[in-house]
Amino acid sequence: MKNKTKTYALLALVLGIWGIIGYRIVSTINPSAPDVVQQVFEVSFNPKTNTKVDTFSIQVVNRDPFLGTLLVKKKPNKTVKRPTQPKVVWLPVLYHGSISKQNTKAKVFIVSINGQQNLMKIGQTINDVKLIKGNNNSITVTYKRARKTIQKT
Questions:
Q1: 26 SS3 class
Q2: What DSSP string describes the chain?
Q3: What pLDDT, on the 0 to 100 scale, is given for residue 145?
Q4: Are strands 116-120 and 125-126 parallel, antiparallel or unpaired?
Q5: Least confident of 16-30, 36-50, 126-140
Q6: Contact 109, 117 (CB under 8 A)
Q7: 22: pLDDT confidence band, cut at 50, 70 and 90?
Q8: Sign, Cα dihedral of 48, 49, 51, 54
């Protein structure tokens, strides 16, 4: 009987320990909701005005902080604006062809200026139209400092 008493006592102790462990597991899985008390606060927002003004100044750095060399400013290129020449209204100039002697290289060009046909040599000026150069296909003339190439018609 002595062994049965110990067995029953140990059985009761084991069941008690397992009961406590089971109770803790069940209580953590299904916890009871705590009571929540809401408190009402009256809050008014009064921002502080910042009377102190933060001042700073930017200064030119003359030295490269990484290389330690002095910085050299590039001078801007000065561009000279030339006055634009007014647009020149050209006289009607047409190039008809050239005439030359067989034994010489000098050519005479047939040019119509303002509807009037003229025979011109290189360097000759008629009605402020100067013949600069020419070949069988085109001539180059200037009129009031404006240059123009005219093709043969």
A1: helix
A2: -HHHHHHHHHHHHHHHHHHHHHHHHHHHHSPPPPP-----------PPP--S----------B-TTT-PBP-PPPPPP-PPPPPPPPP----EEEEEEEE-SS---EEEEEEETTEEEEE-TT-EETTEEEEEE-SSEEEEEETTEEEEEEB-
A3: 85
A4: unpaired
A5: 36-50
A6: no
A7: very high
A8: positive
Asked if residue 143 lies in contact with residue 125, where contact means CB atoms within 8 angstroms, the answer is no
Instruction: Judge whether residue 1 has pLDDT over 60.
Output: no
Q: Can you give the residue ranges of every domain in the chain?
A: 93-151
Cα gap 96→138, rounded to integer Å: 9
Cβ proximity of 108 and 122 under 8 Å: no
Selection from 130, 152, 151 nearest residue 141 by Cα: 130
Alpha-carbon distance of 98 to 135, in angstroms, equals 8
Whole-prediction pTM:
0.45
Partner residues linked to 114 by β-bridges: none
| Mean pLDDT for the stretch of residues 45-65 | 81
Q: Which of helix, strand or coil describes residue 138?
A: strand
Angle at 39 between CA 33 and CA 44, to 5 degrees: 145
Fold topology of 93-151: SH3 type barrels. (2.30.30)
